[in-house]
Structures are given as structure tokens and as C-alpha cells.
Amino acid sequence: MWAGLDDLIKVALAEDIGHGDVTTRSLVTPELQASGVFLAKAAGVLAGIEVSRAVFAQLDPEGIFMIHKKDGEVIKPGDILARVEGSAATLLTGERLALNFVQRLSGIATKTRQYVELIGDAPVRLTDTRKTTPGLRVLEKYAVTVGGGYNHRFGLYDGVMIKDNHIAVAGGITTAVEQVRAQVPHTLKIEVEVDTLEQLQEALAAGADIILLDNMDIPTLKKAVKITKGRALLEASGGINEKTIAAVAKTGVDIISSGALTHSAMSLDISFDIE
Question: At what angle do helices 137-146 and 88-119 cross, to 10 degrees?
């Protein structure tokens, strides 16, 4: 499904189970069979149901996991999302971890969909950032795409981003861009973060492919678009929320990136009930 998912689940199960589920072991026999359902308790966008399936599959490959709602579907309170059949011990031991995944990812997908709808028809792409939970980046970025957003770079390895501290170390934007361009493959775009219109002008002169406009207000963003005139892609970031995103989208920038999609998304309320 995803590279490393089995290992991630193995680590998460070990964290939760440790030397054994003492409560379940004391209450049920290995032979006891049961079924349970994932129920939506709040409206939102579902994401991560396949990850929940993988949790139970690792605990009991013989169990049955029936998906009723797929990732990307809009769900409402009372909807049955999936049904699990198998060992009662497996259901009781795996329910919390399975819920943690699907609640977390659905919360991200739901927040992303909300932002996408606020953007409306504006020709701008909404992306995530690297502000993700350590170890869960690939899943959280997947949830962003389920909600209708796009992925920014996955890590430090797949895109050049010259930020303020890089500029400070290099001694300026022009020097930083020149040094990076001399060393990275021609296939990698170079993005530069700027705080002012003066820095924007320098980044353009240096030949930056993408320029991140950091924490600029609406009038300044509009000026940046006029100055750039399509010579580079413009990415607005910082201060993006439900109240500001629509206005930012109308400034003419090409991309809006928001760390809030992952670091501030509320987990969606979903329950798991033994039938």
C-alpha cells in the first residue's frame, strides 16, 4: 500500500501492546469470535480506512475487513464506514490504533477540503508543508490529497528551498541561488523564501524558479504578483487560515501552502463499536 506501512504499524502496535493486552487477555478466550463497525460521529471527509484495515490484517491475517465508505467520500454522523469480523481479542486489541489512524487522517482530509472549498474557482493550488507528525508524513500528505489538496516537497531531498536561515548562512539571496544552482541537477527547481518586495526583486534577478512570499499581507501579495509578471511561480505562505485563504487566493499567486492542514487539523470523531 505504502512503502514502510507494515513497519510503521508494527512499531505502533508494539508501543501499544508491549508485553500483551492484559485486559483483553483476562476477558476473552482466543476462540471467541466477534464483529465490530467503524461509525462516523461527525461529518467530514474519510481518509485512512485502508490503513485501519492494515492494522487488523497484521494482528490477524484471517480476519475479514469490509469497507463500506471509501477514502475521499463525504461522511455524516451514523454512517457505517467499515465492518470487521474475526477474533474478539484482535478487535479489542487493534481498535485504538486503527481509530487513531483513520481519525487523524480524516481530520486532515476534512480540513483540506474546507480550505479547497473556500478557495473556490480561483486558479491557485493548495499544498501542504513539511510540518507533519514524525514518521507519519507519507500518510498525512496522502490525506491532504484525499481532501483535494496537493503535496509540496516530501523532504529535504526532493526540492530546493532556500529559507531565511540558508540566506543568512550564505550571505545573501543571490549568492545562495548561485551556489545551489552550481551543484544541484538541472531537473530540480529552486525555491527562495522572501519576506519583503526588495528580496523578491533580488530572487527574481537571481533566477529563482519559485518564490515563497512569507507572511505578506494582501496588498503586498498583490504588489508581488505585479512585480513578478509571471517570471516565477509565487507561493503564499504564513497566516493562512479559514478567514484569510479566500482573499489570498484572489491576489493572483500560483500556490498557497499551509502547515495548518497537517499540524492543526482536529481528528475526526469516529468510533468503533463491537456488535
Answer: 50
**138, three cell numbers:** 507519507
Q: Tell me if residue 193 is catalytic.
A: yes
**pLDDT by residue (tens digit) across 54-111?**
999 999 999 999 999 999 999 999 999 999 999 999 999 999 999 999 999 999 999 9
Residues 155 and 86 in one domain: no
10 is catalytic: no
Q: What is the pLDDT of residue 173?
A: 98
Catalytic residue among 128, 140, 193, 202: 193
217 is catalytic: no
pLDDT tens column, 140-164? 999 999 999 999 999 999 999 999 9
Taking 70 as the threshold, does the pLDDT of residue 1 lie above it? no
Write down the catalytic residue from 60, 214, 254, 269: 214
Catalytic residue among 10, 25, 70, 96: 96
Count Cβ neighbours within 10 Å for each residue of 231-247 and write b for 16 or more, e otherwise.
Answer: ebbbbbbbebeeebbee
Q: Are 30 and 59 in contact (CB under 8 A)?
A: no
Residue 133, domain CATH: 3.20.20.70
Contact 144, 129 (CB under 8 A): no
Do 13 and 99 sit in the same domain of this protein? yes
Measure Cα distances from 127 to 112, 142, 211 in Å: 9, 11, 14
In the annotation, is 131 catalytic?
A: yes
Answer yes or no: do 56 and 189 share one domain. no
Q: What CA–CA distance (Å, rounded) separates 268 from 107?
A: 5
Annotated catalytic residue within 41, 125, 130, 131:
131
Asked if residue 217 lies in contact with residue 209, where contact means CB atoms within 8 angstroms, the answer is no
